[in-house]
Specification:
The complex is a heterodimer. By secondary structure, chain A is an alpha+beta fold. Chain A is built from seven helices and 13 strands. In chain A, the strands form four sheets. In chain A, strands 1, 2, 3, 4, 7, 8 and 9 form a seven-stranded mixed β-sheet that branches. In chain A, strands 5-6 form a two-stranded antiparallel ribbon. By secondary structure, chain B is α+β, with helices and mostly antiparallel strands. Chain B has 22 helices and ten strands. In chain B, strands 1, 2, 3, 4, 5, 6, 7 and 8 form an eight-stranded mixed β-sheet that branches. Chain B is elongated and about 125 Å long. Classes of the chains: A alpha+beta, B alpha+beta. Chains A and B meet through strand 2, helix 2, strand 3, strand 8 and strand 9 of A and strand 2, strand 3, strand 4, strand 7 and strand 8 of B.
Chain lengths: 257, 537
């Protein structure tokens, strides 16, 4: 859905300040597992001799890291994460949101400006090292793997008397039967309505559309149409000029036979 | 919130929440600090996705159900693309850039392009403080770098390259954009005048690197338009530098030469000065290119414009001519000759004057053209017909070969007819003219009243004297002989009287032949869509 329209500038007007924090991937994964109201931890902001110190502590229940396949890997996420504060110079960062509610009420609103940038770093701990190791192991596994098989594979292609697909096809053909010659007038009607939709047709397509035997159809076509040998529409049939009446949109001029 | 006391530190704890089910998607809008964007100063803003990259699959390809469509074309095209491994990237709306318009139409515009790779290795979160003191963290969905869009005019790539080549020579940088604006301005008024002739202009350009139309173009443009555009261009040029100079002083730009801009803009030596003044195509050099294509057709160039002038002044005359000439070939010639100069009058491109110097024929023609002006109008008709030989109804056939002249005759005549209808007519006439030609001018001739102009004043066939004194074989007798023997087209006839053998120029040949045919008044019949003449005595 295209989002267009007025931007809600309340955030900008109020000069709401927000923080932009870069968070490691594993931490965001853990946060995604949060339950209830979404509490993930505590943020401690302190002033230590003039310098602001910010630290984030992960909740206990969110420290279980899942290994491959959602099973506990025995590694625990570190809990303490000091924040490294940075300035926002060089760029003016604003935050905007797109609200996409049902019934096309897309709204874009400016939430505020970034006043502080921070990076969330895990405190170097044993847990973290183990976690990192696990990650590296997972990543270093090659995507493609060569594996030797003990036995030759014999289950792929077995000789079959007749493929099931083929059987179906034959049955379908038999049911359809040979194409019968319908009344010439009817065929003409079918042709005209077909040519109303498109100007150029392949003989095969026409056979499909009209369900007539090829030779009969060709005879009729020779009457009312011409065969393009050269040009962009090669090997296609089109109606004779006196029969056709295209006008950008399409109009068909039916002629009496 | 718990406060932990410390000796020299005090900290407060806040709870961090990551809300789970927000429908809001957060993104970052990054501006360069050099742009000095102050979001709080915005009164209103509009932002939407820039969909210009979306290829409308239905529109790009041929319309469905329209003439020219094929059954199953889409599938075939898709299969073809797959066969060749052409992978078209999907158009994802979320990845499209944003267009941000601040403070309405007169305000700033920004384009925000998505920055890739933001969420690959680390996630960004926005921490906002809630009223209850807790922090809420929202993940950032995308990062868009917004750059302001220039509203002022910029140079295109070609122009920029040009200027780069002259960067050491050009001192006055303001004149660059100035000239560009001048150029556009000139193009503007010209275009306005010639709404209808726009198509003609294009046709002309196509037709002609050797085409008839182009030739007319230059000549007439030179004569007639140069004056107008000169004056207008000149005025514009003058006023603009002055204005620009004023602006410059007012703004006090960093460039040093701002005071000198006025004088510099007017100096001859300045490179940029002559850029915009395309009307200045009086010099031989500039016209030389156009020359190349027109040499052959030059012969009657002068003649035609002059003939056209006559025609426009005295329409009766040309009409009389038309009625006289039964085949109507000459009519067509005139038409075309008159028509295209009329068209070209308005066109800007020009180098006509120099043409005169090139070809000796032109001089001869000029003389004859002048001569023509004084002689009775029929002369003009004849000239016109001669002239059109070069114009040729077929674009891209500059040769004045007798073979082509017949076609040109017809085209010219038909065009003249059309020209009568709308003297200022647009090029839309030319296709009509061509069609007319195909239908054969007999209609025009036999009806004796070119409906368009409605100014038909019948005039008894005048005895035109055979212009050339040196014709060895191009006599009425000869033509009569040929026509009695078998029906021939004008083309065939012209072939018989080749310029080399008769000593006539092609234009003269055409003229004479036209007169002879007029006198003979042969019967016409249509064979294979071609008009044949024959006599039965």
């Amino acid at each position: 859905m295209s989002e267009k329209g007025e931007v809600d500038l309340t955030g900008a007007k109020q000069n709401t300040g927000v923080w932009l924090v870069k968070v490691p991937k594993y931490l965001s994964q853990q946060w995604a597992k949060a339950s209830g109201r979404g509490e993930v931890g505590k943020l401690r902001i302190g002033k230590n001799q003039g310098k602001a110190e910010v630290e984030f502590t992960l909740n206990e229940d969110l420290t279980m890291i899942d290994g491959l396949g959602d099973k506990p890997s025995g590694v625990q996420a570190p809990r303490d994460h000091p924040f490294t504060m940075q300035t926002v110079g060089g760029q003016t960062l604003a935050v905007f949101t797109e609200t996409q509610s049902e019934s096309s009420k897309d709204r874009i609103s400016l939430e505020g400006l970034v006043v502080q940038r921070a990076e969330c770093r895990p405190a170097a701990s044993e847990n973290y090292m183990k976690l990192k190791r696990l990650q590296i192991e997972e990543l270093s596994k090659p995507v493609r793997l060569s594996q030797q098989l003990e036995k030759a594979v014999t289950t792929n292609y077995k000789p079959v008397a007749n493929h099931s697909y083929n059987l179906e096809y034959d049955r379908k053909k038999k049911d359809e039967g040979k194409r019968a010659r319908a009344d010439k007038q009817q065929v003409l009607d079918m042709l005209f309505s077909a040519f109303e939709k498109h100007q150029y047709y392949n003989i095969k397509d026409l056979v499909d559309v009209t369900k007539q035997p090829v030779s009969y159809l060709k005879e009729i076509l020779r009457d009312i149409g011409i065969y393009n040998v050269k040009g962009t529409h090669k090997n296609t049939w089109e109606l004779k000029p006196e029969y056709r009446h295209y006008q950008g949109g399409e109009e068909e001029k039916e002629t009496d036979d | 919130m718990a406060s932990l006391g410390g000796s020299s530190s005090s900290s407060t704890e806040y709870i961090v929440r990551v809300p789970k089910n927000t429908s809001k998607k957060y993104s970052i809008m990054a501006f360069n600090s050099g742009d000095k964007v102050n979001c709080s100063s915005w009164t209103q803003a509009r932002m939407e996705r820039d969909m210009s990259n979306r290829r409308m699959y239905g529109v790009e390809e041929t319309e469905e159900g329209a003439a020219g469509s094929e059954f199953g074309k889409k599938q075939r095209e898709e299969a073809r693309r797959k066969k060749f491994g052409i992978v078209t990237r999907e158009f994802k709306v979320e990845d499209q850039p944003w267009i941000l318009k601040v403070n309405g139409k007169a305000g700033k515009r920004f384009k925000g392009t998505k920055k890739g790779g933001v969420t690959e290795n680390a996630s960004y979160y926005i921490f906002t403080q809630c009223p209850d003191g807790a922090f809420e963290a929202f993940p950032v969905n995308g990062w868009y770098n917004f750059v302001p869009q220039a509203k002022h005019r910029t140079l295109t790539a070609e122009e920029a390259e040009e200027e780069w080549g002259r960067r050491n020579k050009v001192v006055n940088h303001f004149s660059i954009m100035l000239q560009r604006r001048l150029r556009e301005q000139e193009r503007g008024p010209d275009d306005d005048d010639e709404e209808g002739e726009k198509g003609g202009k294009k046709k002309k350009k196509k037709g002609g690197r050797g085409g008839d139309l182009r030739i007319h173009d230059l000549e007439d443009d030179l004569e007639l338009s140069s004056d107008e555009s000169d004056s207008s261009g000149g005025e514009d040029g003058d006023s603009k530098p002055k204005k620009k100079g004023g602006d410059v002083k007012g703004k006090g730009k960093k460039k040093k030469k701002k005071r000198g801009s006025d004088s510099e803009a007017n100096e001859d030596s300045d490179d940029g000065d002559f850029e915009g003044l395309e009307v200045d195509y009086m010099s031989d050099e500039s016209s030389s290119e156009e020359e190349a294509g027109e040499e052959k057709a030059k012969s009657n160039k002068e003649a035609v414009p002059k003939g056209i002038d006559e025609a426009s002044e005295s329409e009766e005359e040309s009409e009389e001519e038309k009625q006289n000439e039964e085949e109507g070939k000459e009519e067509e010639e005139e038409e075309e000759g008159k028509k295209t100069p009329v068209q070209t009058k308005k066109k800007r491109d020009s180098s006509g004057e120099s043409d005169t110097s090139e070809d000796s024929d032109i001089d001869g023609e000029a003389a004859s053209a002048l001569f023509m002006k004084r002689t009775p109008p029929k002369r003009g008709g004849g000239r016109g017909s001669g002239g059109s030989s070069r114009t040729g109804s077929r674009p891209g056939t500059p040769s004045i070969d007798s073979a082509s002249t017949s076609n040109t005759l017809r085209a010219a005549a038909s065009k003249l007819e059309q020209g009568k209808r709308h003297v200022v007519g647009g090029s839309s006439e030319s296709p009509a003219a061509k069609r007319l030609k195909m239908e054969s001018s007999s209609m025009a001739v036999t009806t004796q009243s070119p409906a368009p102009s409605g100014k038909s004043t019948p005039q008894p066939p005048s005895g035109k004297s055979t212009p050339s004194s040196s014709d060895v074989q191009l006599t009425e007798e000869a033509v009569r002989r040929y026509l009695i023997r078998k029906p021939m087209t004008t083309k065939d006839l012209l072939k018989k009287f080749q310029t080399k053998r008769t000593g006539l120029s092609s234009e003269q040949t055409v003229n004479v032949l036209a007169q002879i045919l007029k006198r003979l008044n042969p019967e016409r019949k249509n064979v294979n869509d071609k008009m044949h003449f024959y006599l039965t005595e």
